Amino acid sequence: QLYLQESGPGLVKPSQTLSLTCTVSGGSLTSNSYYWGWVRQPPGRGLDWIGTLYSGATTYYNPSLQSRVTISADTSKNQFSLKLTSVTAADTAVYYCASGFLPFFWGQGTPVIVSS
Amino acid sequence: QSVLTQPPSASGTPGQRVAISCSGSSSNIGSNTVNWYQQFPGTAPKVLMYSNSQRPSGVPDRFSGSKSGTSASLAISGLQSEDEAHYYCAAWDDSLNGVAFGGGTKVTVL
Prior knowledge:
Chain A has no helices and eleven strands. In chain A, strands 2, 4, 5, 6, 9, 10 and 11 form a seven-stranded mixed sheet that branches. In chain A, strands 1-3-8-7 form a four-stranded antiparallel sheet, with no helix packed on it. Chain A is globular. Helices cover 0% and strands 45% of the residues of chain B. Chain B is built from no helices and nine strands. The chains are: A mainly beta, B mainly beta. Chains A and B meet through β5 of A and β7 and β8 of B.
């Protein structure tokens, strides 16, 4: 059983960078069989895939966000992170980290508001 | 506009059978497996079905999944009040090179 926990600022100013971290317990980030990713959900709307990190090195990003997003891993801390640059109000959402080729284990989610 | 298409809503009375469809294409459902998720307000999604029709431990057997061609379906038999939630389908999309989600279906128990 994997446990994932998101952390990071709940308020980000427009044009700044949103940075979130996901801490993993119950499993290792370095396992060859694990995919790690981020999904977001704007208020009152559905799920939106942001990107996936495979085997700590290969990344897949939503084409609509590709120019602004980076997902990376810190294996020493068993964490992976999300950075989204040049945020606008449209990036306001609950952000979830998850594991799996298709998300299987999910974190509880962390709300992020983009506002000045 | 979601890559996978779900009806926005479905409903039934307690004990009835409700089915939710998820329509895709050859680049997603047609060539990859489907997961289904259940989400209650204010909580994270929970995987209800994986690899089209496999239930994780703890998911009641009144939930079942199937896939045919470029469509998938989630059925709830013996609908209960606690099944009132949003349900989402997901599949890897080879054209997107990423995860495609359906727009979600809100199930209401009348």
